[in-house]
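During data preparation, a discrete fold description was generated, as reproduced here:
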Amino acid sequence: MDFRLNDDQTAFRSVLRDFVNHEIVPVAAEWERTGRYPTEIVAGLSQLGLFGITVPEEFGGLDLDPVSFAIVFEELSRGWMGIAGILGSHSLSCRMLAMHGTEEQKQHYLPELATGARRTGIGLTEPDAGTDLQGIRTMAVRDGDHYVVNGTKMWITNARHADPLPVLVKTDPTTSPAHRGMSVLLIDADSPGFEVTKDIDKLGYKGTESCEVLLDNVRVPVSQLLGGVEGRGMQQVLSALEWGRVNIAARSVGIAQRAHDEALAYASQRRAFGQPIADFQAVQLTLARLGTNLQAARLMAYWAADAVARGRADGETGMAKVFCSDVALESAIEAMKVHGGYGYSTEFEVERLYRDSILMSIGEGTNDVLRTVIAKSMVRGETKIG
């Protein structure tokens, strides 16, 4: 068993780490505080080819293996988790399109999505439907060569830049179970009746917008039905969300890594009673716990990513997402405690890490719901322990 990255992954991580250290870390706190959109950072992501990490090489993408995919989100989140959000929704959408799109759809969208000339997201959540996607109310009614779409989507990352936006809809609300009547439509941003109505203010996860999207009698050509067959929307979305859980697990590791780094640096330079607080046993115990949990979370994230490379991995990715997100929040809180009163100040990095870490237990399915997914996977014998 070799727990090390291979040479290509190590070199790739080095490039990403340099980019984060020079282009993201110096500006993240100020840009988040002022609400400045990270235009220059997005341009850098494009130059590195990162908008194509889940796009096949034949369409100009990098087509990364799942572990390298995880490394991208770990490193970006170490600098600023919101930047990882810009790339995350885009990458999941590209993955879904590459796996399930018709040849015409892939030829039309993927080359520009790979370069960042186009960007995208994924329209799933609604005011009354989050983790319970079968509860969506957005309807698409067939009218000749078009679908007429009505509904509202919430918390849509990249909504103001997504073109197209894949939207989960109900094409047959009478079918039982409900998921058999659900489909994904690729809706172009200039479609009449498609409107991004507002940005939703958030505790954390700054840098990228999270929006409400209104669909008011939007006419979508039938050719924009993902894969060309109705009723496969839930299956298509879930195949992408498996990578999404690796994404969230890796983001959590990045947050935990930064919390560890900040706590260690502060404990080494902060003095009390005539000595660095790192010399006090209580602080040492906290630092040891931070480092141990961080490394366990990283191994869990990479293990889940490797499982995805081998096939269906609902249980493994669920475990990684739950464990790593718990570690991220605990790490942020413990790092704040090491900082003492300064940890509560917006002048220090750890308060932002705390705000960003909370989302990790909610995004891509809440942790409590995912625990039931893990259990069912074990009961079915799909996820084996030991």
About this structure: The mean pLDDT is 96. DSSP finds eleven helices and eight strands in the chain. The CA atoms of residues 59 and 111 lie 5 Å apart. The two ends are 15 Å apart (CA to CA).
